[in-house]
Please model this.
Amino acid sequence: MKYKNTTFILVCVFCVILFNFLKKDVWEVNADLLKEEVLSIESSVEEVNLLDITPLDWDKVYFFEPYIQKEWIYETVGY
Model:
């Protein structure tokens, strides 16, 4: 009986660790949702309201040029 209890506990711990490892971070989920919304915009659209396409709550939007150093981004957004 002791062997079955130990096995059950080990399986439960393994499942919890596996679930946490496979679970996406909230940043990744929001980035994926935003990417889907942006890609669904037709090319003929010239202006977009970010409130209509963002799947998340936000107060500010920052735009950074490609290849900018991430340290500068972190300093700017306070991360």
The longest helix spans residues 2-22. The radius of gyration is 21 Å. The chain has a mean pLDDT of 79. DSSP finds four helices and no strands in the chain.
